[in-house]
Automatic annotation (TrEMBL):
Pfam families: adh_short. Residues 3-177 form the Ketoreductase domain. This is Short-chain dehydrogenase. Gene3D superfamilies: NAD(P)-binding Rossmann-like Domain. GO terms for molecular function: oxidoreductase activity, acting on the CH-OH group of donors, NAD or NADP as acceptor.
Amino acid sequence: MTSTVLITGANRGVGLALARHYHAAGWAVIGVCRSGGEEVAELREVAETLIEGIDVTRPDDVTRLQREVAGRRLDLLINNAGMLRDESLGEIDFDSIREQMEINAYAPLRVTEALLGNLGEGGKVANITSRMGSIADNDSGGRYGYRASKAALNAFGKSLAMDLKPRGIAVAQLHPGYVKTRMVNFGGLISAEEAATGIAQCIHELTLHTTGGFWHSNGEELPW
Ligand SMILES: NC(=O)c1ccc[n+]([C@@H]2O[C@H](COP(=O)([O-])OP(=O)(O)OC[C@H]3O[C@@H](n4cnc5c(N)ncnc54)[C@H](OP(=O)(O)O)[C@@H]3O)[C@@H](O)[C@H]2O)c1
């Protein structure tokens, strides 16, 4: 039977590369994105189902997403949509921090909760986090909103892993690497395709024994 994956932020960057990867591997891809029209042309080529106009921070949009996939079994949910901003100490923009918390932390929790009915035993949830969410690994400071929002996502992911383990659902926090996408002005070290291949391998290896972990897409376990 064909496996099904739902990916948020699937219209570009790491999300689009993941959509392409799973499509090529024979999965049915449900591509979820905020934009529509020309911006989703590439996703349209690989998505079995395309759900446009979903801003993952908006409860009404997430309710519509829930309605549109009602009754469909998801083998994998990838919470990929995210945003990166910077804040300077001395002129901290709390609206910027709040926005990143909404997108990077609250939205993945909201989407996962909304789609719990679609995830059964053997299902998996992958939260695309960042190494910048590691408190132990922070040796350069700054990025208050991004770091805090990804650290919060890691905390949410760990609780989800504990709560969903009895239901047979495994959860991973995955750092894609420093990837050449719009988020970093295409200045990364690896391609989105390479990141997607590594992420998919980590997801493949994820089990209920390893649930709740935090990994780099190259397989390295990351410190909290
Ligand atoms: N690139 C890196 O080096 C790097 C490193 C560590 C972690 N990450 C993480 O990897 C994930 C993917 O990032 P990327 O590099 O592929 O960035 P990207 O090219 O900027 O793509 C971000 C995606 O998130 C979507 N998105 C943002 N806010 C949204 C919202 N409110 N509702 C719905 N969709 C929203 C965007 O949609 P629109 O097109 O509508 O804006 C886009 O599809 C993110 O979680 C990011 O934090 C990336």
